């Protein structure tokens, strides 16, 4: 597995082809950048740099790697955004009762609400005390509403 930060370092390096400038723009030491680039090269298992006197450049394989590193980082960003969006759009509603009496009064309201929203029973504990069109109501049950 590769550290996503290393892919960011590689992309930044591809813009300058200069370790000193890249390390300064990333606010890391040049030796840390060099080690990260070596780990990237070890990870892919092929040389991605052309070494010459006082010069380090990406070779053709390195250019291909940069292209796919951008795709991976874009996908990672989308994954995070979609996960946060999903989390923020879900509301959990927990209703509990010591006795079944109050819950029986809530059944019609909860059933009506379930017809108006994406309403799913996600768990329950306790004794069953009612069944309305396939919805089984219990003490201490939990629902999740998706807006």
Keywords summarizing the entry:
2 domains; single chain; two-stranded antiparallel sheet; Arc Repressor Mutant, subunit A; 147 residues; rod-shaped; 3-stranded antiparallel sheet; 7 strands; alpha+beta; 5 helices
Provide a descriptive summary of the structure in words.
The structure is a single chain. This protein is an alpha+beta fold. Strand 5 (128-132) and strand 6 form a beta hairpin. It has 5 helices and 7 strands; from the N terminus they run H-H-H-E-E-H-E-H-E-E-E-E. The protein is 56% helix and 24% strand. The chain has 2 domains: 4-86, Arc Repressor Mutant, subunit A (Orthogonal Bundle), CATH 1.10.10; 96-146, no CATH class.
Q: Could you tell me how far the N terminus lies from the C terminus, measured between alpha carbons in angstroms?
A: 36 Å
State which percent range the strand residues make up: 15-25%
- For CATH, the homologous superfamily of the largest domain is named as Winged helix-like DNA-binding domain superfamily/Winged helix DNA-binding domain
Instruction: Name the helicity range.
Output: 55-70%
CATH class of the largest domain: Mainly Alpha
Helix count, per DSSP? 5
Counting DSSP E segments of at least 2 residues, the number of strands comes to 7
What is the overall shape?
rod-shaped
Mean pLDDT: 78
Concise structural overview:
This protein is of the alpha+beta class. The protein has five helices and seven strands, in the order αααββαβαββββ.
Could you outline the blueprint of secondary structure elements for this entry?
Elements: H1 4-16, H2 19-26, H3 30-44, E1 49-52, E2 55-58, H4 60-89, E3 90-95, H5 100-116, E4 118-124, E5 128-132, E6 135-138, E7 141-146
Antiparallel strand pairs: 1-2, 3-7, 4-7, 5-6
Helix pairs in contact: 1-2, 1-3, 1-4, 2-3
């Amino acid at each position: 597995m590769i550290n996503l930060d290393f892919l960011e370092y590689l992309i930044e390096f591809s813009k300058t082809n200069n370790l000193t400038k890249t390390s300064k723009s990333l606010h890391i030491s040049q030796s840390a950048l060099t080690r990260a680039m070596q780990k990237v090269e070890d990870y892919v298992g092929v040389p991605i740099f052309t070494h010459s006197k006082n010069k380090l450049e990406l070779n053709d394989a390195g250019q291909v790697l940069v292209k796919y590193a951008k795709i991976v980082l874009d996908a990672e960003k989308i994954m995070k955004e979609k996960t946060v969006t999903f989390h923020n759009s879900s509301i959990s509603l927990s209703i509990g009762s010591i006795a079944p009496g109050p819950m029986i009064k809530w059944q019609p309201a909860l059933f009506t609400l379930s017809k108006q929203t994406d309403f799913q029973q996600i768990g329950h504990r306790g004794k069953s005390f009612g069944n309305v069109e396939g919805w089984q109501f219990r003490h201490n049950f939990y629902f999740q509403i998706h807006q």
